[in-house]
Write a structure and sequence with these properties.
about 210 residues, mainly beta, 16-stranded mixed beta sheet, 16 strands, about 50% strand
Length: about 210
């Protein structure tokens, strides 16, 4: 069930504090990326403190990002990967390490997003995982979309090699551009990859298009 961003935090028992005037300072090692485009409003929550996002603002490891009605947010990550969030999206940057042992982990709690993988996927052993309420998505040098269409969470390959979608009930590999899968629940296996028509692909892309 969808519910507002701040209600989600209240459910976890976290306090919402007013942001005092001044810039948000963080260690360089906490930076995961930078906001490169923004339409409408978006807020990042870190350590129970919100900060309004704007172009040029740093995205930090641990940020919980929420976008407003009609909003779009584009982020360029440390390895040049690009992630775009649609409206009313709640997105968590769990981890993002581009050096040493590259590892990226993010979580989509609500809404829609697209991702274009970056240099990290060129390194052997690198991992890039996207967690959702119904499945986990693994990336292999690709561009893909994930979000809800017609009340069901779905994933589509837009370009590149492949995405792996799995949960405790099953696993599918989407390795043909233009194909997608639907994941109706965490205990229901993803559907076999199926080619999407231009109409459906267009509706998906529109959810993250500026």
């Amino acid at each position: 069930m969808k519910f507002p961003f701040f209600h989600w935090f209240a459910a976890l028992g976290l306090s919402f504090l007013l942001l005092v005037p001044g810039s948000f300072v963080s260690a360089a090692e906490d930076v995961a990326g930078t906001v490169t485009r923004l339409k409408g409003s978006a807020v990042a929550m870190q350590d129970a403190m919100p900060r309004p996002l704007k172009v040029g603002e740093k995205i930090l490891r641990g940020d919980v990002i929420s976008t407003g009605t009609g909003a779009r947010l584009e982020m360029k990550m440390l390895d040049e990967a690009v992630m775009t969030l649609g409206e009313k999206t709640i997105f968590v940057v769990i981890d993002y390490i581009a050096q040493g042992e590259p590892n990226a982990a993010v979580r989509l709690l609500q809404g829609a997003f697209s991702a274009v993988s970056g240099d990290m996927m060129k390194i052997a052993g690198a991992r890039f995982m996207v967690e959702t309420e119904t499945a986990t998505i693994g990336i292999r040098g690709t561009t893909f979309w994930g979000g809800t269409l017609d009340g069901v969470f779905e994933v589509a390959l837009l370009d590149g090699k492949a995405v792996i979608v799995e949960n405790k009930a099953g696993r599918v590999v989407i390795d043909r551009v233009g194909e997608g899968t639907a994941i109706r629940a965490a205990d229901v296996a993803p559907t076999p990859p199926k080619r999407w028509g231009q109409g459906k692909l267009g509706r998906a892309i529109a959810t993250v298009a500026f």
